[in-house]
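Field reference: "sequence" (input) and "structure" (output). Example, RNA chaperone ProQ:
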Amino acid sequence: MEEAQQKFSNSKEVIAYLADKFPNCFSLKGDAKPLKIGIFQELATRLEEDERVSKTLLRSTLRHYTNSWRYLHSIKEGAYRVDLDGNQDAQIEKEHADHARQQLDESKEKAALKRKAQNDSASHKQNTRQREKASTTSSPARRNVEGKKGTKSKSSRPTKTPPPKLTENDLHAGTQVTVKLGKAPMHAVITEVAKDGIHVQLDSGMVVKVTSEALRLASSKRS
């Protein structure tokens, strides 16, 4: 059993098929021939057994074909329309020729406006990219100025010198220190240096035992 042929999916395929099946009526290039009025019914009858072409697609294909510049250019007063076999039919009247000319002019105007809009959009995008590139690529002089500004900004910040660590000479009773028991260091005085740790008395009177790593020499006194 022979497999069913695949259906056409778009107008381009159908036009190519019609030009091949009815070469005296349809064409893909060169001068187009004006079609007989009522050509759709004639096509529907001739292609009734061909399941590849639906009537809906056939109708949209004819609309696409007859709206093309090539076809509209062929609609001239006095020219003969043709049937599917290329036989002459009725002549084109002035009213139909004027209407086709108007359609052609409007179609060309729309195409020109569309091209202009596309060109303007492309130009705008290019200008935007150039501005972005220019903003990210500064000159050497500007980079130097910015670098100096950055350096000045950093150097203007006050630098805090951390309290010095205790030396062996500082580890004796009476040395004023700071001890970090919480978030902020607290002032204290060493009261005893023992093997198991260093005892310090806080300003509050509390005595705690800490390691030497937790102590810093108080800024007001250094032995």
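The mean pLDDT is 85.
Helices lie at 11-21, 39-46, 55-66, 69-74, 94-136, 140-156.
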